[in-house]
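Bumping my old thread because nobody answered last time. Still need a sequence for this structure:
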């Protein structure tokens, strides 16, 4: 999902409610909060690394660590999280801005996180952990 698509989804979710801020710095701050929440609640597959020089957010499975997601450079930048989690980020951003539907957006985000974690757990359970800390997929 591109950063532009994320903003469109979050704007759509806020229809009839508070509007998404127009200031790019504010949007990126909201996205940063959402990415932090997601990184805390999920084992994000494309953020798993063995490289200790990355900006590490937390310890993952095996010898893996989870690096911090990069912020997008512009509207055409792909988000540095798995596609499914882009919608979770949009729901979280909407929950931060909403006046009338905070619980709805938060519940949608939490459901997306549970669904994503279930998929990741299936992948990791079917993979065999190797001695070097990598997975045999």
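Sorry it took so long. Here it is:
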């Amino acid at each position: 999902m591109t950063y532009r698509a994320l903003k469109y989804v979050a704007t759509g979710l806020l229809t009839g409610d508070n509007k998404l801020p127009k200031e790019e710095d504010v949007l990126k701050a909201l996205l940063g909060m959402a990415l932090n929440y997601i990184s805390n609640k999920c084992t994000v597959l494309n953020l798993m690394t063995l490289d200790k020089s990355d900006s590490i957010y937390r310890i993952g499975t095996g010898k893996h660590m989870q690096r911090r997601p990069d912020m997008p450079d512009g509207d055409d930048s792909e988000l540095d999280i798995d596609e499914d989690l882009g919608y979770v980020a949009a729901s979280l951003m909407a929950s931060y801005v909403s006046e009338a539907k905070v619980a709805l957006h938060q519940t949608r985000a939490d459901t997306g996180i549970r669904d994503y974690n279930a998929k990741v757990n299936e992948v990791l359970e079917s993979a065999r952990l190797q001695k070097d800390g990598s997975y045999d997929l």
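The first helix runs from residue 3 to 13. Let me know if any region looks off to you.
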